[in-house]
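Practice record 12: protein with pyridoxal-5'-phosphate.
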Amino acid sequence: MDDYAKRYRLMCPGPVNVSQRVLDAMIGSEIGHRESEFSALLCAIQRNCLKIMNLSPEKYAMVVITGSGSAANEAVLCSAIQPSDRVLSLSTGEFGRRLGEISSIYNPNTKTLAQDWGTSIDLEAVETELRENRYDWVTMVHNETSTGELQPVKAVGDLCKKYGVRLFVDAVSSFMVDPLDLEECGVTFMSTSSGKAIGMNPGLSLVVGRISEFRRLSDYPVRNYYLNLARHYDFITHKQQTPNTPAITLFIALNEALKIILEEGVSSRFHFQAEKAASFRRGLANIGLSLLHPDHVLSNAVSTICLPNGLNFDELRAALRERGFIVYGGKGPLANRIFQVSTMGCVDFNDINDLLGAIQNIVTQTMHSVA
Ligand SMILES: *Cc1c(COP(=O)(O)O)cnc(C)c1O
């Protein structure tokens, strides 16, 4: 067996394990992207995705871009925002920081409101900014994956409504784990990707927004060819195609993953994800490990766990990898302080128990060797 054909339990915040049904769907498909089969597939993806989100296809649309989650973020930041627009970029961790970084490349009037990692967006500070300065856009992350803090989209959305500002939300790691109602929260555009809680392989990214907002974009200057949202919207709407050659196989898998969610029912999917996160967190407490911020508002996508004394992340990672589990370490200020486990993919309670057993085993061994 080639090394890359090994199967690990991917209990990291993306990529995730994929169900056999999704894997099977990709086999043996050879269709052309300028053919009616692909158009039917793309329409089904759009229809199923809006249905999952409980959005009316009369009012909302979506585009699928071949690329990872960052492609959707960059598409919005380079083509939904005009160069003269003023952008308030909210950051409470690595992914918020990246939104600010990408926005600054295209939009010179980007101000990043950077807070400490592991905090919740400071609504008063946001309101002060919006009241005292003119802004056209606010950007934020729903689940700040680097800390697992779920951010208050509704409250930020209310402020955006009050001050007449548009809102872009990166929901890459929260989509299908932590509910988000675009309509209620007043979200202008939302991004997500295939490789996280949708339960599919990485490689596709999605932008969802109001049709009226997509339509405005055709008047804007083109500043990026491949990631131009107006072009993607024009192609899906008028030709039921993508502008360039898409990763066709992944589109087939995406539609299968969306069909599975619809068959399971959206609310039972959310319930299952919440149960899995809760079960993992209970297990952690039982083996004496603690979450970084147990009393904060946490996403069900990822748990951020303090590294026990005497165990460094590289050792833990290697020992878990040897046992077939992949977990992540901390970024930035959290490097070698925490590790991260996700239960959002095709992971069940047995996988969770197996991982807890492995962690306990490693921690016990370390404690003995230290003592
Ligand atoms: C994973 C992730 C992304 C996208 O990262 P890619 O490496 O491009 O897939 C963006 N935002 C958040 C919050 C994420 O968790």
